[in-house]
Write a structure and sequence with these properties.
Blueprint (H helix, E strand, L loop, with lengths): L6 H9 L14 H12 L2 H4 L9 H10 L21 E5 L5 H10 L3 E6 L6 H10 L6 E5 L12 E7 L8 H11 E11 L19 H4 L2 H14 L12 E3 L9 E3 L7 H9 L4 E9 L6 H14 L3 H6 L1 E9 L7
Parallel strand pairs: 1-2, 1-4, 2-3, 4-5
Antiparallel strand pairs: 5-9, 6-7, 8-9
Helix pairs in contact: 2-9, 4-5
Length: about 325
């Protein structure tokens, strides 16, 4: 295993990556080694998000298909899944297309288009799954970027972006594209983790411990985990971490992120949404839903009320940012 940032090490990382971004040069970190070793002693399901851990794309598509309902929880009081019935829907950043197919099958959309990044998303796999589920006539899949959608103006009634906004390079441009492709009175639904949230480090292809990006900078994590990947000589299987770069959303704690993230906070997104031309129907930090006994539920409710007086802490402990925006209706002549 090369212990320098040599060209050979970078090429080895590229060879086991599907990412369009260059990997962070590997560099050993003793603290990363210790935490990684602790994660390795746990069960696989406890440390890795399943659909990010290798495997064929069709398995990832089926995984997403089963996870569709998770998207709608934060919007329960604003928009329901059944509101997509009979609508033209755009699933921007559709992942592997499983949820796109579920929308077509479960609620009877008039049409739905799903896209994700070229070189990563394979539309043919999603199309095959749509045929398997009998909804191929309603579904269209393609590759594109959210900042520049190859779609007609005013073509959709609803745009859905599920865990996309933490990745895009130009969030304002993406909202502008959503505004362009929506018809008057159409809505955009966005769910994504603020980078300040404890689970937003996106190291979950290796381990899902919360707050890792508060323990060490992402540059050390990315370099250290890439080192472990090469040092294992094929015994480990996870996507190498992209190079770490500066983010335009500069805060005291989050000045550098992997290139596939943007480091956006709730305040950053709120400022962009306010200038987007959308009427804000919902914009909030959503907490982790209460679980367990009534006593635990009351304790968690009390904790959330207490945290409401401390926005930074409330954001850190939040689950996701939820945004619903409505494009203004045309005014009567």
């Amino acid at each position: 295993m090369p212990r320098t940032t040599s060209a050979d090490a970078i090429e080895q990382l590229r060879a086991c990556s599907n990412s369009p971004y260059s990997p962070e040069p590997p560099r050993r970190s003793r603290l990363v080694d210790i935490i990684f070793a602790a994660a390795q002693r746990g069960s696989h399901s406890a440390r890795v998000t399943p659909h990010l851990y290798g495997g064929p794309d069709i398995d990832k598509t089926r995984y997403e298909y089963e996870a569709t309902d998770e998207f709608w929880g934060p919007f329960a009081e604003t928009v329901q899944l059944n509101d997509l019935a009979g609508r033209d829907v755009l699933d921007a950043g559709c992942g592997w297309g499983g949820k796109t197919v579920k929308y077509a099958e479960q609620v009877g959309v008039r049409s739905i288009v799903g896209f994700d990044l070229p070189g990563i998303f394979d539309p043919q796999v999603a199309c095959a799954f749509a045929r398997e589920r009998g909804v191929e006539d309603a579904c269209t899949f393609l590759t594109a970027t959210a900042e520049r959608m190859p779609l007609d103006d005013e073509a959709f009634d609803v745009v859905v972006l599920d865990d996309v906004f933490e990745h895009v390079r130009r969030p304002a441009a993406v909202l502008a594209e959503c505004h362009r492709v929506l018809r008057a009175a159409g809505i955009v639904l966005i769910k994504f983790p603020s980078f300040r949230m404890l689970h937003a480090h996106h190291l979950d292809r290796v381990m899902i411990y919360p707050g890792l990006h508060y323990v060490l900078p992402l540059k050390i994590w990315a370099a250290g985990l890439n080192f472990r990947l090469l040092d294992a000589q094929g015994a480990l299987r996870f996507e190498p971490f992209a190079e770490v770069v500066s983010t335009p959303f500069r805060t005291p704690f989050h000045q550098r992120v992997t290139r596939d993230l943007n480091g956006q906070s709730f305040a950053d997104f709120k400022a962009i949404a306010t200038r987007s031309g959308f009427e804000i129907v919902q914009l909030q930090i959503v907490s982790v839903p209460p679980r367990g006994s009534a006593l635990v539920w009351r304790a968690e409710s009390l904790l959330r009320r207490t945290l409401s007086a401390f926005p930074p802490l409330r954001e850190m402990l939040g689950m996701t940012v939820a945004f619903v925006g409505r494009k203004p209706a045309r005014r009567s002549a």
